[in-house]
Amino acid sequence: MQRLKYLLPVAFVCGMAACQQGAATNGADTTKADQQADSLIEATGPELSSDTALPGPAGLPDTLTLNGQLYRVVPSTQELFASAKEFTPDTSEEKNIAQQKDRVRRHGDTLTMQLTNGQVKQLVNNLSDGEDLAHFTYQGYIPALKSYVVHLYGYEYFDVQVVNENTGELVQMINLPQVSPDGKQVIASNTDLMAAFTTNGLQCFNVTPKGLVLAYEYQPDRWGPERIKWLDEKVLVGIFSVTTKDMDVIEHYVRLEPVRK
Length: 261
What we know:
The protein is mainly beta. It has two domains: 1-10 and 18-85 and 178-261, no CATH class; 88-176, no CATH class. 14% of the residues lie in helices and 42% in strands. It contains three helices and 17 strands. It has helices spanning 20-44, 78-83, 93-98; strands at 3-7, 63-66, 69-75, 104-107, 110-114, 120-124, 134-142, 147-154, 157-164, 170-173, 178-179, 185-190, 201-208, 211-218, 224-230, 236-243, 249-260. Strands 1, 2, 3, 15, 16 and 17 form a six-stranded mixed sheet that branches. The chain has a four-stranded antiparallel sheet with strand order 7-8-9-10. The longest helix is centred in the first third of the chain and has 25 residues, at 20-44.
């Protein structure tokens, strides 16, 4: 499968009708555009709204609701996306463990994490050839969440286990957690438009004194939120993917701007 990257096209509206025939033509074009926008909204789910100024390209939403907040999805750039901070573990588990060597250790198939209550949390690999396969890889520690992060590779799927360092409680996410700058929210996103082995969608969690609480989950059918992270406390940036009729995957850089509370 060929993977292509494009920046979202920005639509420009110019000119005015100078005669009655031009006005009629513009009216027909407007009706057609409205019908296309309505079709897009129906195709991409109930969390979309038509009160945006910028229609998205075919297959992508023009608005998106995250945890009760409506966002306008607008074109962005690779440079802006790269400038936003995110939790990105090293590809080497050994290096990730070394950063918490006094609290995290691996002995063979057993990953052990020290809890603040004096107990430990252990995750043990099951290197089966069947559907019960489970291979845990330590990813790192997030101070804002007071949690360890572990990648779980299963039989034709993966997810992320976030382990509360106080209680050992596990919270399952569809991908790596990205924490908002104010530390109050976490978002996780993943794209799987082709094989459908993993969850194609996004999750929002609230950070509470007792731990993480799932506040919102959404699984679109025709596009995928490959990566989403916070640019600042209000604006998010992401990579949204769609598939073409030739089954190519096209990635669009987007910015999510709040439009109302």
